Every structure is written in structure tokens, then in C-alpha cells.
Amino acid sequence: MHMYTNFLFTFLFMLWNNARTIFQRLPSCKTIISTLKVSKNVISRNAMVTKATLLCAMAIAGGVSAVEGSSNTEVPVLGPLGVKLSPDSFWEDFQNYSNTTELLQKWKVSRLGLRDSSTGETRLMYPATWTLQEPYLLKSFKNDKCLTIETPHSAAMIGRVLENPLTIGDGKKLVVQYEVQLQRNMECGGAFMKLLPPMNGTDLHRYGGSNVPFEVIFGPDKCHPYTNEVHFGLKKTNPFTNKPEAKLLTNAPISSLDGDETVRLYTLIMDSESQDFEIRVNGKVVKAGNLLTEGLFNPPFHSPKKVPDLKAKKPENWDEREFIPDPKATKPDYWDENEPLMIPDDTDVKPDSWDENMPEYIPEPSRFKPKWWNNNRDGEWVAPLVRNPQCFQIAGCGPWQPRMVENPDYWGPWNPPMVENPKYRGKWAPPLIDNPEYSEDLKPGNLENPIGVILFEFWSGSKDLLIDNLYLGHYVEEAESLGNKTFISKKRLQNQQIEAEIIGHRGRIEHPKKPPTMLDYTGGNLNLFDRLSEYGDCLLEKFSEQSSFVQNILGGTILVLILMLTSYFYLKVVYFQQGYSDGAKSKDKNEKKQQPKKSEVESLSVSVDPEQVDADSQSDKTDFTKRRVKQPVK
Ligand SMILES: *[C@@H]1O[C@H](CO)[C@@H](O)[C@H](O)[C@H]1NC(C)=O
Ligand SMILES: *[C@@H]1O[C@H](CO)[C@@H](O)[C@H](O)[C@H]1NC(C)=O
Ligand SMILES: *[C@@H]1O[C@H](CO)[C@@H](O)[C@H](O)[C@H]1NC(C)=O
Ligand SMILES: *[C@@H]1O[C@H](CO)[C@@H](O)[C@H](O)[C@H]1NC(C)=O
């Protein structure tokens, strides 16, 4: 039973596979058919055979190209980075871990448990599991491992202790950069980073969110419809309460976590000398400004010098009314407030055929008391009322009333006119006093603690979110070189795959497959829904594996048979008609008919222009270098 369903699905899948390729080639089919149709007006059995053979050849070509497409798209190997990093820079490309065990020795997940007060059970505070994975939807370089989340819709946390904590201050810059790639649609989830003060691995295993305030928060977050932005914020300790406060960028740029599944690059540059900062997405500056600019951060780094006195009260005699009713005005005598707005029209007369004795509504004649009706229990039965049909035949029935018209004597309620209030003193506002909590921070770019930990902590929006190529350091040039080397190349590669998919000539992107299980899978408790979706992935994978050469040929042959049959009947009809009309037409008319053929053939040669692809990726590059241009904030 299972085998049969399996076979059926595989068969449908490969039929689809072939049909798609042939459809993509349909313009060329059409051209060939019309060419042949026009150039030969001799109807012979041979011509028909030629045509059928051509169609066969095309169908087989379609089948074969489907086979080509389903083989692995070639991906290049990423060469050596060739970027010399300063010893205090941090760089993580996840290439040095061969399995999850090794990954989790450096990158630590909190094991903190939470007690569920309703069930008494203890569960992990951050149940999401992490592993290493290569992008499977749009390929990256060969063996390009990325950090990835296996669990969708759960609290996720992973962090790494830096061997050399980074101090930001004394004119040093903070430069953070990393890649994010989505492989599934995400409704609500983050991919942002927190930079924490130094901790050791044991502390990270006990990390519980609010127990350690971050120094910097940066990165994309999207949760429809609540947020969709690249967060940027710094922590500052309030000198009066001694509590940490997150100062967050207002009007932050949008997250860019929508659209295609290509990789994105997020960069933060903060200069502790000038207090300038810059946020770049894919190398382009999307926000630039100065930490000290008023209104840019909330709460501001600078508290106001004067604040309203909250204890002040509005004096009793303070008159805030700008206008008052004129106390001297009186209602004129002619003004009768009791006159109604509408009165009956005296000129209206009752139509002759109006019958006041005939009822307007009558019991519905087709209704009868139901059998189950019990007068004692249900009360007396009354038929529902309907309009009396006899009334429609005359002007009307029931009591007649004249129509209503506007009353010329109507005045409405009288109000005295408004006049300026002589006692008006303006709107009251509490007086300003010196801010008792005034604090001045002219160098918010100096972080309070060194950065000792890189941490991802957010709500996981979809599984298989990829994070890669993390840079943390003082140097913009290093981040740019790394971005040039990794992100730009990866993005170009993925753009080419998308173009190839759109044009359909350069092979095909593989269908979504279950990610390669290159690593020990730690499981986790999947619910039914997740298991079903896993099963769906599994099936898909099977089909793409099984649509092997033989099956494609099989599918191709079946399609060819169908095509041959349809084309046989189609051509028969067309040739019958054409032969009939051609006989009656003169020769030069035939020559005219040939002309559109040429342009149709030309339109056949649509293919990817390699020059153009290069030019496009070139523009990526230039974008990356244009970054210096500072855009005005807002
Ligand atoms: C990976 O290991 C190599 C060899 O030990 C080392 O040179 C390189 O810096 C490591 N890369 C990262 C990102 O840690
Ligand atoms: C992970 O890789 C290391 C080094 O290759 C190996 O010693 C270890 O056994 C592997 N662990 C698992 C669970 O495969
Ligand atoms: C980690 O740091 C904590 C203090 O934050 C300390 O109590 C603990 O002993 C440290 N553990 C190790 C293994 O160094
Ligand atoms: C990044 O690439 C662009 C274009 O090739 C180049 O002009 C720029 O100098 C590169 N930047 C760095 C820091 O290497």
C-alpha cells in the first residue's frame, strides 16, 4: 500500500519536473511549429512525421535538462580569506567545528531551568537547539558551515566567551558585523546580538536573560505587527537609581528580514571619539547619526536640565476658558424653541383610491398552525403578518397621513453667542524646576564594561535561520575586507542562482530538501505539527532523489506520447484547413506570411548574458565602497 502511494507521488513529481522544463521551452516549440507550418504548404505524411519527431526531440531535451537540473548545482570553494586581522579582533566563521559537540564546547547554551508553577515541572528557559548547517535553499560556498537554529517558535540563546575582552572607549571604535540568512518564511522572530561584560563559561551555562544587562544590543528583529527593525541600543547605569537602562535608537531602520532568501549583512560602527554611529545593511548605510543628537535615543543619554514641577497644582481661580457665552445676550421674542422641525403638509390630499378600512398587514394566508402546537403550552397560535397584497393594487391602505414638510418657523434651541473671556489667563502648565536627576554624559560611546561575551538571545521565528561570519573589533577596514571576501561573493553566487531560476536556462535550484544531517542530531521534543512538516520535508527529499535519470526518461517518454497524440490531431486539423485555404491564395501572400517568422526566431535566443551578471555584481561591490557617504539622519 505504502509502496503504491510512494510510486504515485514519485510519478506525479517527475511528470511535473518534465512538464515544467518543457513549458519553459514553449516559446521555441511555437516558433518551430509556425516556421514549419508557413514554409511548407505541401501536406504530406512525411512532413507530419518530421514535425512529430521534432516535438519528440524537444520533449526529450526537456527531460534531459530536467535530469541535468536535478543534479547538484556547482558551487565554488571559498578560497583563503587573505585578510590579516589584528590580534584583538574577533572572527568566527564556524569552519573550525566538525560537529555540534565541538561547536557547543565554544558556543554555550544556557541550561537554566524554569519551574512551571501550574504543573510543577521544570523546563529549560531556552529550549531551542543549535547546530551547524550549510545553506540548502540558496547555496553558499562548498562546505560553508553556518550556525543555525533547529527549533522554531521557542526562546533561543547561545553565547561565546571572548578570549580577549574588547574595551570600547578612549577613541576606539566598536565594529560589529555578521550575516543572517533565512531559509523559511518568518512571521515573528529575531536575529539580533547582545554584547555582554566578561563572564566565564559556567556563568553562560547559568545565563538567565535579565540577570546580566547587555552593553550593546544590535541586529534585526521582526515580529508582525509589533516590530520590524534593526535594533541598536547601549546600556547606561542610571546614577540616581543605580539601575541599568537601555537607551534605544528611535526610528531604527527596517529589519530587511523579508523578501528573498539570500544572505544579509548587518554592520554597526560606533566611534567613541566623535560619538558618530552608522548602521549598514548589505554594506549600504541605512542609518547614520550622532549619539548626542537630541531625540535620537530613548531615553536620551543626556537628561534635561529643567523638568516640570510635578508637585505644583493649578490655582483655583486660574481661568483657562478663552471664550465664554455672552452674559448680556438674551433670547429674541420671535425665537420659539418649541416649534418642531417637520410639520404635516396641509396641501397634501388623500388619494381617491386609498382605502382606510382595508388593513395594511394581514396574517400570512399560506401559514397554518403546526401540528405540534399546543395552545395550553405555547399560547394561542398567531400567523405571522405580511403586507396586504391588495394594497399594492390601489394607492394604499390603512390610516392615511399627509406627508411631512420642513417647518418654516423652526428656530431650534437658542444659545447665547460666544465672546472673549476677559479673565482668560492662558493654559496652565506646571513651572519648570531644576532637574534633581540631571546627569551629563558627553561620551556615551565609552562603554561601561569591556565586551567579554557575544550572545544571541531572541525568539526563534523559523528553523534553519543561519548566522555566519561574525566580526567584532575596532577596525572598519577589517570588517569591509571580510565583507568583500565573504558576503559579497556569497551574495553574488546566490543572486546568480536566483537569476538562473528566473530565466530557467542555467539549470535549476534544487527543491527544498531536508538539510544534510552532517551532525549528531540532538532531537528535542517535536510536537505533532513539527513532525508532520518534517515528514513533508522527508517526502520532498525522497522525490527529488528518486527523480533519477531513468524516471525522467520514463516521464519524458510518457509526455512525448501525449504530445505526439495531441500534435497528431492538432496538425491534422491545421493542415487540413491550411491546405484548403493555401490553394486559394496567391504565392506572394505566402511570402508575406513568412516575415513574422524571422523575429520570432530571434526572440528565441534569450539567455543569460554573462557580462550583465558581472555588471550586476559589480554594482554590489561599488555599493559596499560607497559606505563612507554619510546619510543625513531621518
Ligand atoms: C580555525 O583554525 C585555524 C587553524 O588552527 C586557525 O588558523 C583559524 O584562525 C581558526 N579560525 C577561526 C575562525 O577560529
Ligand atoms: C566530533 O568530532 C570530533 C573531532 O573530529 C570527534 O573526536 C568526536 O568524536 C565527534 N563527536 C561526535 C559526537 O561525533
Ligand atoms: C566563573 O565566574 C564566577 C563568578 O562570576 C565564579 O564564581 C566561578 O568560580 C567561575 N568559574 C570558573 C570555572 O572559573
Ligand atoms: C571592497 O571591495 C571594493 C570593490 O572591489 C574595493 O573598492 C574596496 O577597496 C574593498 N574594501 C576593502 C576594505 O578591501
UniProtKB/TrEMBL annotation:
InterPro entries: Calret/calnex, Calreticulin/calnexin_P_dom_sf, ConA-like_dom_sf
A biological process term (GO) from this entry: protein folding
Organism: Zygosaccharomyces mellis
Family listed: Belongs to the calreticulin family.
SUPFAM superfamilies xref list: Concanavalin A-like lectins/glucanases (SSF49899), P-domain of calnexin/calreticulin (SSF63887)
GO cellular component term of the entry, any: endoplasmic reticulum membrane
Keyword hit for Disulfide bond: yes
Annotated TM spans: 549-571
UniProt keywords, alphabetically: Chaperone, Disulfide bond, Endoplasmic reticulum, Membrane, Signal, Transmembrane, Transmembrane helix
Regions of compositional bias (Basic and acidic residues) in chain numbering: 322-334, 584-601
Region Disordered, annotated ranges: 322-352, 583-634
Pfam families membership: Calreticulin (PF00262)
Localisation per UniProt entry: Endoplasmic reticulum membrane
GO molecular function terms noted in the UniProt entry: calcium ion binding; unfolded protein binding
Signal peptide: 1-21
Name of the featured protein: Calnexin
Disulfide cysteine pairs (residue numbers): 188-223
Membrane topology, from the record: Single-pass membrane protein
